[in-house]
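Supplementary Methods, section 5.1.

A reviewer requested that the exact input to the structure prediction be made available. We therefore reproduce it here, unchanged from the version used in the analyses.
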Amino acid sequence: MDKKVDADNLDIRLQALESQIYGDRRNTSGKPVKCAESLVRIQAGLTNTANKRERVKILHKKIEDLMKYLDPQFTDHISVPDAMKLEFILAEEDFLLSQAALLEQVSNLQPLLDSTYIRDVPEHATKLQRLSQIHIKEQDQTEAQSLEVKKLFEEYNKMMFLLSKQFTQWDETLRKLEEAKGIRPVE
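The structure derived from this sequence is encoded token-by-token as follows.
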């Protein structure tokens, strides 16, 4: 009884969907258009077309094989002998031993991972974020100060060069005047 109610509900829902899609359209015989009938006709046409073509048949067979190989239970059907499994394990013995040693190290270090320092990492991360922003800001300020200091040094060097040049000219002029008056002997 319950299955009949479910089937009736499904039929009512399908009719409502068909009326929303097709509206009041009717097929050539005057009956309302049914989605399921249209889909069955299309499927039959595709099947007829596919059966007539040899390449499509081969493709369907390959798709079936592919689906079979992709099934996770397919590997259960393939059985590897115990001797082969033993060979695999023996071939990977060194690797397995090294992994076991690493796993033992991790289990020995587990208390360190459970420490309050590790649990407080998110809190420290926010503090570190703020500090990194301050650091970036101070780097920018330092760069600006460096440029300013460089500019001041350039101006200082230019000024010292001009003063040195001026003092050299004055010294030359004074030397010529002293030589002309005889105060200083000619070199």
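The chain is about 85% helix and 0% strand. These observations are discussed further in the main text.
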